Amino acid sequence: MPFAPCVCIGIFLLPWFPCTWGKCIFDQVQRSIKVVSPPTGQYASAHWSLRETVSAENPASRSFKHKREQRHVESMADSQPIRIKTWIPSESPVLTESERERLMSAVNDAVNKVSNLLSVRRVTHSLLLNRDINKYCKFIWRNSSTVNHKKCGRANENYRFESCLGVIIPDEHLNGCAVYPHPEYPVPSVLRPKGMGVSETDFLLYVFTHNTDKCRAESSILAYAAHCQTDSEGRPLAGTMIICRETLSMERYTHEHFVQTVIHELFHVLGFSKDHFSRWKDCSLSYQAGIDCWSHGQVTSTDDMGQFRLYSPFVIREMQKHLNSTHTDLGAPLENKDAGSDGLSSHWEARVLQGSIMAALLVEPSLIRIDPITLAALQDTGWYSVNLSRAQSLVWGEGEGRQFGSVSTCHNSSTFFCTDSGLGCHYLHFHKGECLTDQYLDGCHIFKPLANASECWKEENERSGMDEWNGEIYGSDSRCFISNITRLNNATASTPVAGHCYRHRCTGINKYQIQVMDSDWLDCQAGKSIEVSGYQGFIFCPDNRICKYSDLLPPTSRQKANELLNASTYIESSDDDVMEKDRSTPHSSFMSRSFVTVSKAKVTVAAVLSIMAAYSLLSTGMHVYRKCLSVRVRVHAANELSYRQQMAPIQCISRK
User: Fold this and answer.
1) I want to staple 156 with a disulfide (CB 3.0 to 4.6 A). Which of 138, 256, 392, 577 is the partner?
2) Which pLDDT score, from 0 to 100, does residue 464 have?
3) Is residue 577 within 8 Å of residue 508, measured between CB atoms?
4) Is 265 noted as a catalytic residue in this protein?
């Protein structure tokens, strides 16, 4: 819980370290949700129709694989951005104007982002959800020889409504239901008439704002969700997201916290769920209405180390590209710490896909990426066409090879993992960090942002006194660099090696200059170290991190971000130095990593990190225990009882 007592070690005036991180328990509760699908033998009310396409090419002259690829293009040509409509039950507590604005702004921004990423073969008419026959029916005709086989023969007198994660679904959104009193007479007695449905909708999201028991249990919970209806192809059609009321008034949760929480939950309810893995399909051959998609078959299995991985076609392709591996069977690892009895999880393994929007931990919003591996998984559901060009760069582990992130290799100090304890920089270099582990890292250590005032890009984090001695500068164009410089006239002991904030500006791909207090702009050659006039010590220049990804910006205001983007696009005239826009095609000259070297009389990075670790250990006894100020986001999904036992009027807020 936020502000719970925990042990944190301060080193002189440095901020406190984070002690806990939020997690998502989606899998634990989605299993308890009764998902309703169309009645057997009937098309879903949300079924789509596809134009019959005929290739002029002789099919016999093509390979089967070529046929599938060709028809995939043809059948997905009609896909359009998914239309997610949000529906707000009127029984939600009345919100203040600021709370409502904060809620709808975050939900709308998240829905916009998801709609720009995912396309579907749209619902051709109004979306109608189905009723659960096992709820409204007391008796079903089971004799297969009767006319009314599998139809309801007697109504359940206690039937009142359908619900989705405790939210009552209005009759207007539902198909009707009827009973057939005699097995041989097809004339029904209507129990509930067919509703009007929801027009221009491909997915219906019920958004309920309430201070539920789960919200009260832990004040760090922002939201939780589950899906509850699918169409005949298994695609989710409706779900509910509970937004915890009290969090809307908490300043420590930013707009970006809410947006990324909603996106995380939306990806879960749209199909990134272990309950759906076995239902993922290849729909490339379903180019005529009524033809079923082909199952991918078993897409999850263990690798030679016992790690469960997701082996679906687009995921394998993107993993090969990301890790720069030609291994033909390189699946994406699933988290092992929150896995159920089946060994599966609906989250990526944190050691390998740290920073992904679908990792089990949601952390500082500026460090989360809507990554290509996650979007590839949504493509492999068979329900969506995904715009992979909109994926954000996943810096963690890029180009590191097939074995990256394994427990057997992560304990060696590298450009992504660290050893023991010490101070340094988070791998995106927006934050100062400490070498820590957590329950999802299996003992591996990484540099995590300090809990308080670790952001180099925040001017307000600048402090007097110590900053002047080590030359730190905070601001929107500042990044974290490992350094031990101190002014020559500093009479105190030498500065320990740690992460420090200095200004930077790009001059090309993986090329940049830095500036410390009272210095000129200095070339900082990636993979090397530099000295600064007027200071003693060294600054180490990270390789393949800074000025390589055009979509990595700190979460400053739009104006500042635009100014930074313009400033960082100053490129030398050589064609080889043009900053690339496409995260999937890094410049060939930067594919291999250079070892970090140090010029004469300079210590190596490995030695520096050792000194840093030793210094941290010696400092432990010198400082007091503090309460941990870190706040992280917990994302949950849970099944709850209906909040009202009677139908209530509702209002609709739509997004096309």
Assistant:
1) 138
2) 64
3) yes
4) yes
pLDDT for 463? 81
Q: Which residue has the tokens 């992979």?
A: 388
Whole-angstrom Cα distance, residue 573 to residue 8?
49
Contact 80, 40 (CB under 8 A): no
514 CB neighbour count, 10 Å cutoff: 23
| Domain parsing of the chain, residue ranges | 133-197, 459-609
As a whole number of angstroms, the distance between CA 213 and CA 15 comes to 34
Interval 583-622: pLDDT, tens: 333 332 223 333 333 333 333 444 444 444 444 444 443 3
**313-323 vs 372-379: helix axis angle to the nearest 10?**
160
> Which residues in 516-619 belong to E strands, given as ranges?
522-523, 529-530, 535-536, 539-540
Of 109, 105, 39, 115, give the one whose Cα is nearest residue 84.
Answer: 115
Total residues found in the chain within this entry: 656
Q: What are the φ/ψ torsions at residue 340 (nearest 5 degrees)? A: -85, -170
Q: What is the CA radius of gyration of the chain?
A: 28
Q: Which of 99, 233, 265, 400 is catalytic?
A: 265
The most distant pair of C-alpha atoms in the chain lies apart, rounded to whole Å, by 100
Q: Cβ of 390: how many Cβ atoms within 10 Å? A: 13
Which of helix, strand or coil describes residue 153? strand
352 CB neighbour count, 10 Å cutoff: 25
